[in-house]
Design goal:
Length: 355
C-alpha cells in the first residue's frame, strides 16, 4: 500500500517542512490547515477547522490516510482552556479518520514544555527539571495541554489499533509566516530592525541562558525523525526528544548571528530586556522597511513572535536535551545549529521576507 500522509498544521514551521520531506520521499501528502499551504508541488491542500466536526468530516470524506502527523495547536488565555481546546482538536481529528480503518500510525509533536511546565508556570521554581531532559522523566504534577494531547492519542490508538510516536523538539528553527512560535524569524526581523535603526542587537534573555548550554531543533531534523519513527517498527509507541545533536552557549551564538547581519552585538548586562517590550512599537517601522525594500510581509506580527522568544531566552536555567533514546534505535541525523540559523536567514532574504 502506498503511504498516504495527512499533515495537520501544514502551514506552520513543522508541518510545512514535514510535507516537503514527505513529498521528496514520494509519499502522497494531504496538508490540512484552516488556510492550508498551497505552494508545495504535489501537496493536496485541505481546508478545515479542527474544532468543527462537520468541517472535518466534509474535508476528509475522500481522504484515507495511512499516517497522520499532528503538528498543530491553538494558544488560549489559560492552561485549562489550552487543555480543553487542544485535546478536543486531537480527539475530533482522530474520531473523524477512524471510520476509514486505514490509519497505521499517528505522530504528535509537542515540545519541552513537557518537562518545563505550561505557559502559566513555565520554568519556575517547583517545575524545574534535571537537565539534560530525558524521555523517562515523569510528568509534572501540574496541568499541561501536552499531556492532554498525548492522552487523546493513546486512547485512540488503543481503540483503533494504530501505532504512535510523540516528538518533543526544543525551539524549532525554520521558515513559516504567521506561526505563533518562531524564534529564528523573530531574531532575523529584530536584527534587521537593529541594522536599519543602528540599535545594538541586545540579548533579551537571562544570565542562565546567556552563559548556559542550550540546543535547538532544525525543522528539517524534526521532519526526518517523524518519518523515521512512523516507518521504523522499533520506534513505534515511543516518545522521543529531538534536537540538532550539538550544543551551544548563547554568548557565542549571539555574536555569530550579529555578524551575519552586520550589527553590533550586546550581551547579557545583568538585566533581562524582553523583545516584546523592545519591539512593541516597531509595527509601523517594519511596515516602512517592508515598503522600502519591497518585502512580501509588512505585518510584523505575522513574522515575529517576541513573546515566545522571550519565554525561551528568559529561562532561569540552562536547558539541554538528551537524544540517546532515538540514537540507540538508529536515528542519527545531525544538523549544525549555526547553519540552521544561517540557512533560515538566507531563505528569508531570498524570499523577500527580510531585507
Amino acid at each position: 500500500m502506498q503511504k498516504k500522509a495527512l499533515v495537520v498544521g501544514v502551514s506552520g514551521i513543522t508541518g510545512s517542512n514535514l510535507a516537503e520531506q514527505l513529498l521528496a520521499e514520494e509519499w502522497i501528502v494531504y496538508g490540512l490547515a484552516r488556510n492550508p499551504k498551497t505552494d508545495l508541488t504535489g501537496l493536496t491542500p485541505i481546508s478545515a477547522d479542527l474544532l468543527n466536526t462537520d468541517s472535518l468530516a466534509t474535508a476528509l470524506s475522500e481522504v484515507s490516510p495511512t499516517h497522520v502527523f499532528i503538528t498543530s495547536w491553538m494558544r488560549n488565555e489559560t492552561e485549562a482552556e489550552n487543555i480543553r481546546v487542544n485535546s478536543l482538536m486531537v480527539r475530533n481529528l482522530l474520531d473523524t479518520v477512524a471510520p476509514t480503518k486505514t490509519v497505521q500510525h499517528v505522530a504528535l509533536v509537542t515540545g519541552l514544555k513537557h518537562y518545563l511546565g505550561p505557559f502559566e508556570a513555565y520554568a519556575k521554581e517547583g517545575t524545574l527539571p534535571i537537565t539534560p531532559v530525558r524521555e523517562e522523566h515523569p510528568r509534572l504534577e501540574i496541568e499541561n495541554f501536552y499531556y492532554a494531547q498525548e492522552d487523546e492519542v493513546y486512547a485512540a490508538a488503543e481503540r483503533d489499533g494504530f501505532t504512535w510516536s510523540i516528538h518533543r523538539p526544543h525551539t524549532v528553527i525554520g521558515k513559516a509566516v504567521g506561526n505563533m512560535m518562531n524564534m529564528g524569524t523573530t531574531l532575523a526581523v529584530y536584527a534587521s530592525i537593529c541594522k536599519e535603526t543602528s540599535r545594538p542587537f541586545q540579548f533579551p534573555g537571562s544570565g542562565a541562558q546567556w552563559n548556559g548550554l542550550s540546543d535547538v531543533t532544525d525543522a528539517r531534523v524534526l521532519a526526518q525523525q517523524m518519518i523515521w519513527a512512523a516507518t521504523t517498527e522499533a520506534a513505534h509507541n515511543q516518545a522521543f526528544n529531538v534536537t540538532n545533536g550539538d550544543v551551544f552557549r548563547w554568548n557565542w551564538l549571539w555574536l555569530q548571528l550579529a555578524d551575519w547581519f552586520g550589527v553590533e552585538a550586546k550581551g547579557f548586562d545583568g538585566i533581562i530586556h524582553p523583545l516584546e517590550t523592545a519591539m512593541a512599537a516597531d509595527g509601523p517601522l517594519w511596515r516602512s522597511i517592508a515598503s522600502r525594500y519591497s518585502l512580501k510581509e509588512p505585518d510584523l506580527d505575522r513574522l515575529a513572535s517576541a513573546w515566545h522568544t522571550d519565554l525561551d531566552l528568559g529561562r532561569p536555567l540552562e536547558v539541554m536535551t538528551d537524544m540517546s533514546k532515538s540514537r540507540k534505535l538508529g536515528f542519527t541525523v545531525y544538523q549544525d545549529t549555526r547553519d540552521s540559523f544561517f540557512n533560515l536567514f538566507d531563505t528569508l532574504r531570498a524570499e523577500r521576507l527580510i531585507p
